[in-house]
Design a protein that fits this description.
Chain lengths: ~475, ~170
């Protein structure tokens, strides 16, 4: 009897490569005494190989391991996104960890394993796989959040994230159990294909609990409380990974789980998600105004961006889903760029994180300042950058499904966000600097930030390059 | 007659679970909490047996009562000065907490009441579930089964990293 075939193994090749790579990193770490450079470069090679495998599996369209995971298309596309994020975080981290004196080799292993969790989430065809993927990613994040373990804020971030995350996992698991109890299966297609006809109270409660679990992972209001403290307390490059990869992964499995029920245009479900979305946009942007710390500001901004993406989900249309995927790419690139520059600029023991510290950066480091302004413009959603196209698609999808009020809230709150995004630009160019310390700009980090900015530009000017691919995914 | 006996056993285990779980949460003494957790896990194992889940019940006894709990008790007893520690168990925002928890419980209880439960009548002695679980784990569920090992690996790495002595500044 054969339990799985060769096709299963080939289809899940990217995943297997990443798993293998993480084990290899662990071994190298144990075998060699000072292997930072080795672990770093093997990790990058492993992820590049996995990108190659994802490109190879991209044309396939199947499921593997008895309908557990998706193969090709959607899964491969997201795999490439997560692996790219992983490589950029690697490049940013090397000099940053050196500067902060937190250079441990496990760091790289944990990042690679967390990416394998994200890949599982984006390729799940079964609730069990969603749960396992979320757990792999979250456990890595709990540890990475506590990386500054001699600092109070590092411990606070890790503990808060762990306790709240465990609580959210409880909700998610309870929901999965209720759905399994009513349907007798955990297969995503089979549990959701009769969503409208099936109004068993336990079944609906299961979906509700599932929604709470996902809302926590994407940091949507009212399940956002952890985000600002965790983002502030973690190392900046870890924050970059959480706010991009973590959010993209949560959204990718959110779409997989909810796209069929949403495509039936169930009024109640649409309304619930629309309310979550409106609350996230309002609270994220309004609280963002009051922040003095840049990392906290970006945390509230990430809450607001979760709200924008939920607009696309609430619409339930294909346009909305495509919009979310495009938005995830542009948002990930932009946030990687912003956090990358912050990590370059950050001082040894966590200084240089307030708005005032950015005064006069325009004359001291013109390239960095220009790149950071570009990221901020893209986060606001100003035309030639990728952020604009994403927002356009999301709000257009809301109008298409008669949720015009949601689109109006989105546009209004985007206007509010202009204040705190552009404030940093004002500080950089129109305020005099009080400090004259030299800023060391590591070449690897700078190169990755420049690459990311080119991406923001290209996807903003020629969105059809990537939109044509996205449209054939779902 | 059979059904009455079944009911008595069910309520016995349910009461044991609930009361001991209450002690775990409300006791101010950590040793007492740890010991009453034994009874919670034991009561849950009993409920699993009544639900015909023999394998899960045994796993519950082995893993939770036999493994995790003994480890927990050792950790509590070997940690100095912990046995006299008075824990803070006050709630920070009682009114908000009461409203939220009460509404959640209300919704869940309402759902349980509203639901029309399927009633299965068992005519013969049920078969053991261990064989079918074992088969599923290496056939249809082989991927999740393998992935769980990755989660355990991450947990070990993370625990080792966070518990290590602080490294010298390089």
């Amino acid at each position: 009897m054969e339990f799985f075939s060769k096709a299963d193994l080939i289809g899940t090749l990217p995943l297997l490569v990443v798993f293998g790579c993480s084990l290899l990193l662990l071994l190298l770490d144990a075998l060699f005494k000072d292997a930072k450079k080795l672990v770093f470069s093997v990790g990058i090679i492993g992820m590049l190989t996995a990108i190659g495998c994802s490109l190879y599996t991209f044309p396939l369209s199947a499921t593997a391991f008895s309908d557990m995971v998706l193969v090709g298309g959607y899964a491969s596309f997201f795999n490439i996104l997560f692996l790219t994020i992983g490589i950029i975080v690697f490049l940013l981290s090397y000099s940053y960890l050196e500067k902060q004196h937190y250079h441990l080799k496990e760091f790289y292993t944990l990042i690679v394993i967390s990416i394998s969790g994200m890949m599982l989430m984006a390729s799940s065809a079964d609730l069990i796989i969603i749960f396992l993927g979320i757990e792999i990613m979250s456990v890595c994040f709990y540890v990475l959040a506590g990386y500054k373990r001699i600092k109070v804020e590092g411990n606070e971030a890790a503990l808060k994230y762990f306790l709240l995350g465990a609580f959210a996992t409880g909700f998610l698991l309870y929901g999965i159990a209720l759905i399994y109890g009513t349907m007798g299966t955990t297969n995503l297609i089979r549990i959701s294909q009769n969503f409208d006809a099936f109004s068993h109270p336990l079944y609906l409660a299961g979906w509700g609990l599932l929604l709470i679990g996902f809302s926590f992972k994407i940091a949507a209001v009212p399940f956002h409380m952890w985000a600002p403290d965790v983002y502030e307390g973690s190392l900046t490059t870890v924050t970059a990974l959480m706010s991009t990869g973590g959010k993209a992964a949560a959204f990718s499995s959110f779409i997989l789980a909810f796209s069929i029920p949403l495509s039936m245009h169930n009024e109640k479900l649409m309304m619930v998600i629309a309310i979550l979305s409106a609350a996230s946009m309002l609270i994220g942007n309004v609280f963002g105004l009051a922040q003095k710390n840049i990392k906290r500001m970006l945390a509230y901004s990430s809450i607001a961006h979760a709200g924008y993406m939920l607009v696309g989900l609430a619409s339930g249309t294909k346009l909305g889903m495509d919009g979310i995927i495009f938005y995830l790419i542009s948002y990930s690139l932009t946030n990687l760029g912003a956090f990358g520059i912050i990590s370059i600029f950050e001082k040894e023991n966590g200084g240089n994180l307030s708005y005032e510290d950015y005064a006069g950066l325009g004359s001291r480091k013109p390239i960095l300042a220009a790149l950071l302004s570009l990221c901020m413009f893209s986060l606001v959603g100003i035309p030639p950058f990728a952020g604009f196209i994403g927002k356009y698609y999301l709000f257009a999808s809301a109008v298409q499904s008669n949720l015009t009020w949601l689109a109006i809230i989105g546009v209004m709150t985007s206007l509010v966000s202009t204040y705190y995004y552009l404030r940093i630009v004002v500080y950089m160019y129109f305020r005099e600097s009080q400090q004259s310390e030299l800023i060391f700009v590591p070449s690897l980090a700078l190169a990755s930030v420049v690459l990311v900015s080119i991406g923001i530009f290209i996807f903003g000017i020629f969105p059809s390059l990537i939109l044509n691919v996205i449209q054939n995914l779902l | 007659m059979f059904l009455q006996l079944f009911d008595i056993i069910f309520y016995f285990f349910a009461t044991v679970t609930l009361i001991s779980a209450g002690i775990v949460v409300f006791s101010k003494n950590i040793v007492r909490s740890a010991f009453s957790l034994v009874f919670t896990f034991f009561g849950i194992a009993g409920l699993y047996v009544l639900l015909n889940a023999d394998f899960v019940a045994v796993a519950q006894l082995f893993v939770y009562v036999g493994g995790i709990l003994v480890l927990l008790l050792f950790a509590v007893m070997l940690t100095q000065k912990i046995s006299n520690l008075q824990m803070k168990i006050t709630t920070l925002h009682p009114i908000i907490a009461i409203i939220l928890v009460a509404s959640l419980i209300g919704v869940l209880c309402g759902i349980v009441r509203m639901n029309d439960w399927r009633i299965i009548t068992i005519s013969e002695i049920p078969q053991s579930t261990a064989q079918s679980i074992g088969k599923a784990l290496i056939t249809t569920h082989i991927l999740p089964f393998e992935i769980i090992s990755v989660i355990l690996l991450v947990a070990i790495i993370g625990a080792a990293m966070l518990a290590r002595k602080s490294e010298k500044k390089s």
